[in-house]
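TASK: fixed-backbone design
INPUT:
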């Protein structure tokens, strides 16, 4: 008898039990608990569905307009505005469950644009633009209801078919200027694609491009006929990093932005205490070992002229910040006097280190404590703490300081600690 029990446990039980979970047979159940769930994103009259169900092997979508789908992540376009009852039924063997959401499709007059998109001629999808014209048309005509990011597929060379880029720019620039939302064009996998916007390079067209660059984040390259401009290199070229004490600056190669221009540059601002800099030249600004003998961050500013066929198309101010030997951070507010006796929010601020963006850390301790506590990290030169009295204790004195990691020294730079205004117990009347 024991022999037969052993035989059943060893050979027959795994076959009977584990055979129930054959992943190649959708009619057999999964080991996961069956949980239907989905997210959706609406763009104009189309909806992208993201299936987040667990334990399911089959799916049935009912879009509420007479159409269905068995895809895991379908998309659907509605022919009429209105409210639609969308059902997702998931199955696992003989068990099935359904989740329902109501989706509103707005009339065409209420369409807007926000969120993430792609630009790829070989890809289909509600949030994919196959044509450059379609992308600019929606950006130009639809209200912005949030930030927009458009990822451009790699190794493309796209041109406008019917739209006139001058007309597009003249409509898009004031719209972006007045909007609180940002539009970003980013490059897929960092491989450069080209958008041919104008057939020729002239001063008017280039001026419109520079305005677009001011209000849009461009990570792709642009062509005017045969002349190329690598807009993704804009900040790298025209907003260079600082000059560290005792080290050479990086050379500034303007041809990394465009070889269509020739470049002339001249010094327009410097301060006493700086030595080792160049005053003027053409082409690139060479590497320089500029020494700052003061105890302050000092600017070294050059005016760069961009010339095409001998005519100046644009001028830019390129500022190099020269760091002193000893780095520092100065706190601004709150000051070290006065009382705060209300539960108002408190803003901490300090003088930012000029140059590239830094990440700052704020630390606070009760006066007399041995260690500071980390409170918050920010990329701006200010920190907001809500409900000041709820964060601190009444009738106590605190200190605070700020620090940041400095790429020149490879060490942290921090301010001197400063007392906080004391928190006085309010008198309620």
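OUTPUT:
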């Amino acid at each position: 008898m024991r022999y037969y029990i052993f035989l059943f446990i060893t050979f027959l039980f795994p076959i009977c039990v584990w055979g129930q979970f054959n992943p190649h047979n959708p009619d057999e159940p999964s080991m996961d608990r069956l949980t239907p769930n989905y997210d959706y994103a609406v763009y104009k009259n189309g909806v992208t569905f993201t299936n987040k169900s667990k334990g399911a092997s089959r799916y049935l979508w009912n879009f509420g307009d007479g159409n269905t789908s068995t895809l895991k992540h379908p998309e659907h376009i509605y022919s009429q505005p209105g409210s639609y009852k969308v059902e997702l039924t998931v199955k696992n063997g003989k068990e099935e469950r359904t989740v329902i959401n109501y989706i509103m499709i707005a009339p065409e007059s209420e369409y807007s644009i926000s969120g993430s998109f792609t630009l790829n001629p070989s890809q289909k999808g509600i949030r994919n633009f196959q044509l450059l014209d379609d992308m600019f048309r929606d950006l130009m005509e639809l209200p912005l209801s949030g930030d927009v990011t458009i990822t451009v597929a790699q190794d493309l060379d796209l041109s406008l078919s019917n739209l006139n880029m001058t007309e597009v720019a003249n409509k898009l620039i004031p719209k972006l200027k007045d909007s609180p939302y940002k539009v970003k064009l980013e490059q897929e996998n960092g491989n450069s694609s080209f958008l041919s916007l104008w057939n020729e390079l002239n001063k008017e067209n280039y001026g419109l491009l520079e305005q677009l660059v001011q209000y849009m984040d461009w990570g792709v390259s642009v062509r005017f006929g045969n002349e190329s401009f690598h807009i993704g290199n804009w900040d790298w070229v025209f907003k260079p990093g600082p000059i560290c004490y005792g080290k050479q600056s990086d050379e500034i190669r303007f041809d990394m932005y465009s070889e269509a221009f020739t470049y002339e540059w001249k010094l327009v601002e410097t301060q006493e205490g700086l030595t080792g800099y160049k005053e003027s030249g053409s082409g690139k600004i060479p590497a320089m070992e500029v020494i700052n003998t003061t105890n302050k961050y000092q600017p070294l500013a050059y005016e760069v002229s961009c010339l095409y066929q001998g005519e100046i198309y644009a001028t830019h101010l390129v500022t190099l910040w020269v760091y002193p030997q000893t780095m520092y951070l100065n706190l601004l507010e709150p000051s070290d006097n006065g009382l705060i006796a209300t539960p108002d929010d408190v803003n901490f601020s300090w003088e930012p280190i000029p140059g590239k963006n830094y990440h700052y850390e704020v630390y606070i301790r009760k006066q007399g404590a041995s260690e500071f506590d980390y409170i918050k990290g920010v990329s701006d030169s200010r920190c907001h703490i809500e409900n000041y009295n709820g964060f601190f204790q009444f009738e106590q004195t605190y200190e605070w300081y700020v620090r940041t990691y400095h790429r020149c020294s490879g060490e942290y730079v921090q301010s001197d600690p400063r007392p906080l205004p004391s928190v006085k117990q309010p008198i309620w009347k």
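COMMENT: The mean pLDDT is 86.
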